[in-house]
Structure formats: C-alpha cells, structure tokens
Amino acid sequence: MSLPTTLTDFSLAEARDAIAAKKVSSMELTSAFVKAVAGAKSLNAFVTETPDKAMAMAAASDVRIAKGEARPLEGLPLAIKDLFCTKGVRTTAGSHILGNFIPPYESTVSQNLWDAGAVMLGKTNMDEFAMGSSNETSYFKPVVSPWRAKDSNQNLVPGGSSGGSAASVSANLCLAATGTDTGGSIRQPAAVTGTVGFKPTYGRCSRWGIVAFASSLDQAGPMTRTVRDSAILLRHMASVDPKDSTSVDVPVPDYEATLESGVKGLRVGIPKEYRIDGAPLEIDALWSKGAEWLKAQGAEIVDVSLPHTKYALPVYYIVAPAEASSNLARYDGVRFGHRTKDDIRDITDLYEKSRAEGFGAEVRRRILIGTYVLSAGYYDAYYSRAQKLRTLILRDFTEAFKKCDVLLTPATPGPAFALGEKSSDPVSMYLNDVFTVTVNLAGLPGLAVPAGLTANGLPLGLQVIGKAFDEATVLRAGRSIEVAANFSAKPGTWWRAA
Amino acid sequence: MSVDKDTVRRIAKLARIALEEERVEPMMHELNGIFSWVEQLNEVEVTGVEPMTSVVAQKLKMRDDVVTDGGMAEAVTANAPRSEDHFFVVPKVVE
Question: Which residues of B touch A426 (CB under 8 A)?
C-alpha cells in the first residue's frame, strides 16, 4: 500500500495502519489536522474547535502506543457533530438557545469513540436542532461547501443537517466525522459533498446524550471518505446502552472483515417509485449505471415496488415536528439555555420570550406544526393517520425484501444548490430528502456512496438500503459500487487560508 | 384543513413561543402551505391499519426499580441561567 504524501489525505484506515506500523505518530497526524481546521475558517465547518484538547488526547495516545496498549482507533482525529454532548465542551445543536451550554456528561456514541482511542478536533456546524437540508438554519451562520461548479465562484451548500461534518470530511479537515440522520441528515450532505455517509438501523447506536430532535427517527452514524472507513467507525460507535431503552442488544459485527466479499448472487432491488418527475437526467443515468456496476460484479437486478413512497415526506413532516415539539419543550429558560433579558411579567412570559428569542424561524415553525397536529381534535386526523401510513411504508419494505437483499436508489434528487436558493420555500427544501426519508420512517440502514459528477463537476451519490441490522451487506454492496465508480474527485482549495 | 389567525395565536400560546402580532399572518400562510401539502395523506385508505409504535420489534426493557444515579445538584444547576444554592431561580409563581 502506498500512502499519500500529505497526512491529511490519509483515509481513516490508512492512518490507523500507519500509526500501527509506527510510520506516523498521533501527534504528527493530529497537528496536521489541527492546522487544516485552522486554515479552513471560510468554510465555517466548525462551531467550536478544540485544538488543545486534540493535542492532549494525541499525546496520551502516543504514550499508549509506545507502551503497546493501543486501542482500535488509537490517536485518530475525528470531528464530532455539535449535536453530541461532549463533557466540558460547549454543545450548541446549532441553536442560540444552547449557545452557552456546556454538558456535564458525554454522549454514549462519543464516549465509545474516546474509549476506542479516538481524538477530538472539535464540534461541527449543523442546521439548528438538525432541522434543515442545507445548513442555512444554523445560528452560527451556514457552512459553505468546499465544492464549486466548474468555472464558477458561487458558494454552494454542503447539504444538511450534518453539513459541517460533510464539509470537514470532504475538505480533509478530519479523518472522519460523526453525523446524525432523522430524515436524511447524514446521507444527503454526504452525497452532495462526494463523501460516504451511513445511517445504521434504528437502535444500532445509542441516542443517549444526543440532543433530541425526533426520537423515533434520530440515529447516529459515520461520515467518512471511504466505505471501509464507515465500516470501521460504525463498529466503534454502535453499542447497546442501558441509558437508551431503544438501543438494541444485538452483536456488533466486524463490518470491515466482510467488506470485500463482493456482491455475487446478491439480489439488488430497484424500486420503480424512486423514478420521480422532474429529476435531472443525470440522476437517472447514474442510477442505471449503478445497477449495471453491481450486475457486472455478479449481482442479480430485481424490479420491486414501494407503493407508498410518495407519502413518506408528508408523513415525516407530521411525525418529526410532533416529536420535536415535545422534545423541545424542555428549553424553558430556567434549567439551562438562553433566558430572555427582557422585562417579564410572569413565568409564562419568561417561557414565551426565552423560546421566541432562542429558537430560529425553522425551529419555531416546526414546533408550531407539531403542537397543532398533537392538539386536541387534530391528533387522529394528522398524527395517528401519519403513524398508520408509516406502518404501510414499513410493510412496503418488508414485501420488497422478500424479493431482494438490498435496494439501490439515488441518494438525492440533485447536486448541491446555491446558498439562499431554496431557503424561502420550506416545501422545496423538504424535497431534498425525498429519497432518504423513507428509510428513517422504516428504521432501516441506508448508505450514501459517491458515484459520479454532474456535467459541471458536482458530486452525486447512490444509496444502498438494507434490511434491519444487516449493515454488513449494505456496506459490502456499497464497497462494490465504490470500486466500480472509482470516484476520486476532490473539491478545489479556494477556501484554504493563504 | 387550514388554520386561521386565531388558531395560529392559540398554537403559539400552547407552544409557549411569543409570536408578535405582525408575524401571525405570515406564519398562518407558512403553516397552511405545509398543511395543504400534507393533505395528500387523506388519499390513502388506512382502515384497519395499526399505527406504528416502534420501527424495530422489541419488548420494552425493564430494570430494577433502584436508584442508579443522582446526588449531583452542582452539575444539574451548572448551566442554569440563574440559580442559588442549587435551586433554579424563576419569577414569583404563587401570590
């Protein structure tokens, strides 16, 4: 294996192997990434940088390595989405209301990563409370994608909500990052930044210590430069956890061990309902190409139907705001978070003003939608009906998986768009998640893999969807796409400080 | 189904989010835009379909009813905008 000449160009697997072979120390590796982060301010990918903590963790890792006590991710610098609570390090969820929140505890997923030896570079920017598909709802200003269209100086969005993580992975500011995905928030930003994003099965990773958005949909997952790196990182993020009663007690396999097993004999379903009117021809062409790649490697392509697909987004925009309105009731200006400085009449006034000042426009809108659909007299018409539709959407997948082992779909309906292009029309913004949201409603694993570029040079991804807890097969199919696509494009370096 | 201005005021009150009077009408239009889009769910026949309660079939976990954590008033109140002696400070609630 020939290693890249620049440390920040290493994949997670390459860095791990180089550290194990003592070709590089964690201090060398970490300081290269700390410098990269410091030189990428124009992307606004981080809300909080933790260079001192990173170097201290790297030093401790080098001591362990020298003693022969290295753990699986020893000394590997990662970026953490600012939705994961990190003990003693500000955690904002991209919101003004948590602008000064310093958690006195650590999320289970991030604790698992530190227990495996990983190093924290900082906390990545995101849409406020993970509500958005472009990073433009962040209180800390939007993330800018390192990607630009050919011959263009226009700034593009990195997708969302895990846009800071996607931009950091894509621009080589970290070896890998964590993300969370409620309707597509890992897979959509990964697809539009040419990176790999994996939302595992609901219950695979503990949600404890992750700022809650919609609890029946939220799931953490890895964002990486290669499929192998996602296989490595997921194994160390996942765990059953007594602090999250929905985390599932099933063994976490060594996904890396089966990664190269290929797709010979694998039945790959193509759901016809994912061919949508108005989608760019490039999306359709890439999808067909993806099926051909898998067929050429011995997979069997099967046509399947998921008849309730078109209802997934409207169902999501009832279920997610309903759960959010309930989860976000905790921000009261009393126990933690922003409290109004205005004159107040009474406690209700304190709540109302603190929440109006602390939440941004999209979050306020979703809380109001959720409050309405759960209110007396409307619950059956909206929430209960949506949950019934959700049963039908899951049933569609269960039926399809009788005929196939995985599904192949596009990851997004288009490439990255310009900042401001869609922010005035909520419904058009919501449509970004049309191919990803079904997977959350059904709790299934979904992997976005970079597969090609548009004519003007912007990344597009394909999505592999698997059966519940069959992440290993999803990763194996994703790896086969990665090999065939041979995607090697990287964004330019216009954003780098001179 | 669509909401009127009074409904918007009532929802904002229920959600404990102050909504300035000039924001009521724009919010009404935004919400109605979204509600008219979700209206399409009424096309589907759902009689006899159970509403989903869990995506992954599993039994609700039980644990022993014992104290597992606690005694950390300092940490609990550390992020409070106002606290005194490990109490949260709020405006007078009872006359």
Answer: 30, 33-34
Question: Rounded mean pLDDT of A116-131?
Answer: 98
Q: DSSP string of A164-212?
A: HHHHHHHTTSSSEEEEEESSSTTHHHHHHTT-EEEE--TTSS--TTBPP
Q: Which residues contact A16 (CB under 8 A, 6 or more apart)?
A: A72, A73, A76, A232
Q: Do the Cβ atoms of A278 and A434 come closer than 8 Å?
A: no
Q: Which of residues 12-71 of B touch A (CB under 8 A)?
A: 12, 14-19, 27, 30-31, 33-34, 37-38, 40-42, 44, 46, 49-56, 58, 60-61, 63
Domains observed in chain B: 5-42 (1.10.20)
A278: distance to nearest CA of chain B, Å?
Answer: 18
Q: Which residues contact A78 (CB under 8 A, 6 or more apart)?
A: A113, A118, A119, A120, A121, A174, A175, A176, A177, A178, A233
Residues from chain B contacting residue A311 (CB–CB below 8 Å): 40-41, 44
Three-state DSSP at B80 gives: coil
Type of residue found at A308: H
| Complex prediction ipTM | 0.96
Q: What is the extent of the structural domain holding A218? A: 8-266
**Chain B CB contacts of A372 below 8 Å:** 3, 7, 11, 31
- Running DSSP on this structure, what letter comes out for residue A418? B
Cα distances (Å, whole numbers) of residue A247 to A82, A239, A320, A347, B56: 21, 7, 19, 37, 10
Which two three-digit tokens encode residue A448? Answer: 């976005």
Q: Tokens for A235?
A: 């194994």
What pLDDT digit, counting tens, does each position of A31-78 carry? Answer: 999 999 999 999 999 999 999 999 999 999 999 999 999 999 999 999
Show which of A340, A369, A385 is a domain's final residue. A385
Q: Which residue has the higher pLDDT, B60 or A398?
A: A398
Domain match, A97 and A187 both = yes
Inter-chain contact A216–B55, Cβ cutoff 8 Å? yes
Given CB atoms, is A398 within the 8 Å cutoff of chain B? no
Catalytic residue, chosen from A161, A162, A168, A423, is A161
B17–A364 CB contact, under 8 Å: yes
